[in-house]
Description:
Layout: E1 11-12, E2 15-16, E3 18-20, E4 23-25, E5 32-36, E6 43-48, H1 52-64, H2 66-70, H3 74-90, H4 92-103, H5 107-126, E7 134-137, E8 148-156, E9 159-163, H6 171-182, E10 186-190, H7 197-200, H8 202-209, E11 216-218, H9 223-231, E12 238-242, H10 245-255, E13 260-263, E14 269-272, H11 278-290, E15 302-305, H12 307-322, H13 341-356, E16 360-363, E17 367-368, E18 371-372, E19 375-378, E20 395-397, H14 404-413, E21 416-417, E22 419-423, H15 427-436, E23 441-444, E24 457-458, E25 460-461, E26 464-465, E27 467-468, H16 470-476, E28 478-486
Parallel strand pairs: 9-10, 9-12, 10-11, 12-13, 14-15, 14-22, 19-20, 22-23
Antiparallel strand pairs: 1-2, 3-4, 5-6, 7-8, 8-28, 13-26, 16-19, 17-18, 21-25, 24-27
Helix pairs in contact: 3-5, 3-8, 4-5, 5-6, 6-16, 11-12
Amino acid sequence: MQxxxxxxxxxxxxxxxxxxxxxxxxxxxxxxxxxxxxxxxxLIGNIQACTKKEVDELIKIAHENINCWEDIxxxxxxxxLNKAADLMLKWSKSLGFLLMKEIGKPINSAISEITxxxxxxxxxxxxxxxxxxxxxxxxxxxxxxKEKVSMTYRVPLGVVLCIGPFxxxxxxxxxxxxxxxxxxxxxxxxxxxxxxxxxxHFGIIxxxxxVPPGAFHIxxxxxxxxxxxxxxxxxxxxxxxxxxxxxxKNLARVAGMKPLLLELGGxxxxxxxxxxxxxxxxxxxxxxxxSFSGQRCTAVKRVLPMPGIADELIENVTDETLKLTIGxxxxxxxxxxxxxxxxxxxxQGLINDALDKGASLxxxxxxxxxxxxxxILDNVNINMRIAWEEPFGPVLPFIRINSAEQxxxxxxxxxYGLQGMIFTKNIxxxxxxxxxxxxxxxxxxxxxxxxxxxFPFLGxxxxxxxxxxxxxxxxxxxxxxxxxxxLSEKGKLxxxxxxxxx
Length: 502
Ligand code: NAP
Ligand code: G3H
């Protein structure tokens, strides 16, 4: 892959810098954090371990520049987002290649993570027309007249802290940055330490697109060292976070009274009724469970089949899973490495627990390096950890059920509430079940998924707080500003009235 000359400014050799006020800086800590390719353990870069003093400096500058960015007309901010999207498209292959190396995502999916982010930037620019308000007259309430007029428009919240997860480090920070900027906020971004390199390029992309220094900054360092300090910082006005439920819950405790948008973990269940279309269901389950080796919040993480379809469904899902190619992400294999060997140990622990307690192995349960072969477990019951815990790996448990009521009960017993799925031809029944599921979204005859990116995306319970999706994210990162004008009755024209009061 050819080097992009524009990228040379952000690093010395493989030592990346952090981005403060339009400058690429070395941390005074003189500490670097190594980033390894999870497929072959190759060292691909080092990032700066920034200090708390550097956090202070960076957030202060973001705070001081709120007005300067907000004052740029909305249509100009939209132009900047469009230019940023064009640069992402121009550099999508180089960025996708780096992303593939740092998180082990299959190369085609890695490139489409970049192009999908460009589409979000373009759609956010188009949505600038939605940054608007309304005018209301007072006379709808007893005792008030039309002379009391409220004008409401939307204003930014201030400095928005954007923190993303390792599995979509470019896209899930980009989907926060674009609506934050269009709404007029300045942005401080902290990329995940497992997968920070591609996201660091937002510094180059946004600067070249025309974001002035001061409006966008990137701080790097381990969440365990600077995370609490960042989120509790008094000059951070809003936090838009995607990551695990544990980190999200801690963040909510530490952040105090700041507005939060939290997209967290999931344990999405697919309920399969006897009359489901087998071909559609099998395809959705295999793709849903094993894309990016199961490292997606929206992965299909449990299947609850009814007795009339269970045997055939499990056989067909197993047959299709055995066709998935396994190995080097550069060769676009469907199953690649998990992000770390610790994560592999965790996933293996879930498999072992289920097998020890009597689950039947249909395929998988093999490990080489950081790759775990796609594993299907039948006859899983509610006493096994895999029935409840989020593996974030390629493991799919089947929990056989006898009724829709039982499926609803098992689905809802989860601490998570991201998405649910129902596969059936009976749309009336599907609709009734959907109403009972305690999740953000129910997919009928389709796999759980976040996109398309203008749809609302949210979790209930431990899966999150607030709603993401272009229009919803803009709303979450702005607030109404209300100005009430009390017009004088004195200037009122006297008109003849033909309706007499009784
Ligand atoms: P994670 O360990 O929670 O990390 C997420 C981000 O939080 C990283 O940038 C991390 O930085 C940072 N962080 C760590 N400690 C922090 C602290 N004290 N304060 C502030 N930030 C802190 O999650 P992950 O392993 O990257 O991602 C996998 C999880 O994310 C899964 O549970 C998955 O379901 C969830 N997820 C949810 C969605 C959704 O939209 N619902 C989407 C994608 C992923 P460091 O890397 O430096 O520790
Ligand atoms: O990992 C969580 C992401 O929000 C999932 O996005 O459904 O497009 O893969 P996706």
